[in-house]
Each structure stands twice: as C-alpha cells, then as structure tokens.
Amino acid sequence: MAHVPLQENPPGLVARLATRYTKRRFGQMVEPMEAAAHHAGVLVAMGSLETAAQFGWKKLDPTLRWLAVQATGMQIGCSWCVDYGYFEGMHRGVDPAKVRDVGAWRTSALYDERERVVLEYAETATACPSEVSDELAARVRAHLSDAEFVELAAWVALENFRSRFNAGLGLRSQGFSDNCEIPMRAVGTDAVA
User: Is the Cβ–Cβ distance between 149 and 183 less than 8 Å?
Assistant: First the structure.
C-alpha cells in the first residue's frame, strides 16, 4: 500500500498535463505519477529529467540500457520498476530469455562479456556505498566509448532515483508484466515483492 494517497485525477495544470501524458505513454495511470502529483515541483523535475533521457540519451545500445536499468531496479528491490522493466524489455525487442534471466546473469550463459560488464557495473554503482573500482571502470571502457560510459552511469543513477522514490513511497507492481506473452518467473517477482 502506498504511503501517500494516490491521486488519479490530481488538481492543477501541471498535474493534469502529466496525467494526460502518462495515460498516453503507459496506457493507464501509473502510481509513481499519482504519488508525485502531490508536489508540482517534484512532478516537473521528474518529468523534465525523464523527457531529457527519453529524447536525448541515445548513445548507449538500447539492450545494454535496458539490462542496466533492470539490474538496478532489482538490486534496490523496487517491484514496480522490475515489473515495468520486464514489460518494457519484452516489448522493446530484448531477447525474452535475457529478460527472464537478469537476476541470474552471473551464472547464465545468455550474456556476452559486454553485457556482463554492464550488469556488474549497474549492481556495483547501485550498491551502498557505491565503489566502482578502477579495474571495473577499465573493463567497462574496454567495451564502451566515453559517451556510452557516461550515459550508462546516468541511466543507473536515474533508475536509482526512480526505484528509491517508488520503494520509499511504498509503490508496488501494477501488473505490467501480466500483459506479456511470457510471464515473469515466480522467483523474480518474489525477490522484489
């Protein structure tokens, strides 16, 4: 249960515009927006950052981006983010086997070395404290350009913000993964519920 009342039809121009955009983008209202609607400044800041990322962060391969974001949400334990991330991966063309196996990437044979270093970076940068070693950074740089590495760090940081916002307000899965041909593994949902 959310720690603040969720506002399906929030008052104010900013909230109404955000509601319209959210319904168009997600096909329904999403709880993070309903929670953020209590504070127009937070809503504007979140929307501005999300818009900048959506339209301006295009250096990193989309599958690597998705892997980093999903691993970050899983590391934090945000069931909303993991649920939506699964849905997004399945609908954005990420290999369904990889979508299902992110939580087991260390032992899975599905990921190549580039994907593994991105997943390791996402988890390491998300840890508290975040201690990305020079050795790990060198391995990332062996696979990514400077611009890609910066964008990877930005995606991990953005997902930390999203996941911690959602988890901090008690937001839980909204069932996005239920709309996928291949359902999430039960263990994947139990780990973050």
Answer: no
